[in-house]
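Hi team, as promised in this morning's meeting, here are the two structures we talked about. I've kept the exact order from the run log so nobody has to guess. The first one is mostly here for context; it's the second one we should focus on when we meet again. Sequence first, then the predicted structure tokens.
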Amino acid sequence: MDRALTLDVVHRFPGGAALQAKADLPLDGGPVTVLFGPSGAGKTTLLRAIAGLDRPDAGTIRFAGETWFGPGIFVPPQRRRVGLLLQDGALFPHLSVAGNVGYGLPRAGRSDRVWEVATRLGIEDLLPRRPAGLSGGERQRVALARALAPSPRLLLLDEPLSALDAPAREALRATLRGTLEAAGAPAIVVTHDRTEALALGDRMVVLCDGAVRQVGPVPEVFGAPADVEVARVVGTENVLPVRLARRAGDGLVAVRAGEVELVALDPGGLSGEAYACIRAEEVILEEPPGAPTSARNVLVGTVVARVDEGPLVRVRLDCGVPLVALVTRPSAERFELVPGRRIAALVKAPAVRLVPREP
């Protein structure tokens, strides 16, 4: 079944900023597409336009061969048959859980459908209760059940876990992924959380400054950002301005960041200036001095700062260039990573992603 979503949307905000989103999304390639970007990028605005809650200023929206928005065309939300889950769930406080899940369903078969969806999400014991008596995680499960109950053609979820505390978010994340896989309808999930994107998504659309900057499988976007803005948006901690030094053969290229030389895979077409993007988890620490080879870079430097983040430790280094490494707590303790400690940072050539520097 062709369930492609084609977007070419212009939406102007007060003050002059605009959302100009253009993308072709073959939604049959995986159950979940993540709409990812920083706050203010236009993610929720685009989701509301897809749902039919907001009318763009210009452009087109097409789903499964049908035009939902275009010149002289605006299909209202109820005829688009989408399921929508907002950040706060937006449950009706005067209705029971059963009443919320079954809201808008035909009377015939309503109770059976409510029970079916409720058991799928493990909320059948909550059906008689009112939203005021539910926890945050329970309310989101009920809201998701209500979105799923009408058997929508497309599911739209806006920051579905953002209102929950960390334990509830972790508990619901796996359930949400499994539910979306079983739903039988493609889903678009808005998030600015990297862990959420990796856990939920098959495909990713990166929005930045009101424009689509990259579309692709989630690991590809995180591992090989299309440009420096995408690298920053997806959380690549090390983005170093570099200049081409030489081509090193065997598909490798040498670049310089100040006095530091790095060897990377040659992306082709590189000349002059670029950015070297290195994820913090790709930086391996060991006792100096280390031995550089054609497959890896060794940068000897000094620990500048250490921040403990639960089981992981984020280490800031001065290696002639600033560098961030993310290591396990046992590694940090073994190497005694405290400010002033000399350490060698190893980065394999494939971990150095080169993207052109914009004019």
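And here is the second protein, the one for discussion:
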Amino acid sequence: MSRNARALASFVGLTSLFCFLCFPNALRAATERVECNSLPSKFVHRAVPYCVMLPPAFDADKTRHFPILYLLHGLGDNEQFFIHSGEWNLVEDMREKGELKDFLIATPDGGTSFYINAKDGKERYEGFLMQEFLPFIEKRYRVLPGRANRAISGISMGGYGALHLAFRHPQLFSAVSAHSAALIEKLPVFLGGAAGQSNQPNRARIFGGVFGSPPDPVYWNQESPITLARTANLAGLKIYFDCGDQDDYGFDAGAAVLDKVLTTRHIAHEFHLYPGRHDASYFAAHLPASLEFHSRLFARAGHES
């Protein structure tokens, strides 16, 4: 990213934060609008913050309905990651260049949930998403009905969540994408780490108790997108995922396993192993690819309907 681009991203992030503090329910840019609020949940026993990025056409035509992309953030971030990271500006630029069609982008706060139901049953985030969040968002924001108009994507922990949810509920999503998804084939090996790794003692912390404390390999395998991909009916689901070949957590190995599973089952998918690590620069470089992937599919669905 150039110096000017970094400066612009920082300015956009600061401006967005100021607007959020003044007007928490309506963040506005020149062309796009981001609306942030929260939704009470009986599944996670709290109000869950969320943001929805609305294209200019959403306000221009009050009768029009739109496809929607659910975009899940990574560990340590929140529902506003699209704002403070500068990705809001990226979407605006791509939209202005005609690289993206009109669709909504919804970003719920996933905390450390991995977007699944916790092993102890105390927080059922997957239940929140499926039974509360999706119905609420799609009614409130004029979303087109049907699987063809709904897709899901994510980064890191969010990539895990996107793949898990799409493979567990393929009847609900027409497409899924993931960048550097937290894919681990053998949890004990991951938790043990490789000799000499500085982050070896901290690896269990990234799971936040969702899979048990210490993390339970049986529950991990049960919920893993790799496991789900072995038997799920993925007919018609469009799949894209990528990972850096020097991923700091070794998620590139898990991505390669998922690629092998899907290939063995003759399930069409797109997988890329690019140069890069598990960091913001990698995500920023490759997020446009998944946005274009979903935009093309939404446009095709609209044309066919």
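Starting points for discussion:
The domain at 3-304 is CATH 3.40.50.1820 (Rossmann fold).
Residues 159 and 181 are 4 Å apart (CA to CA).
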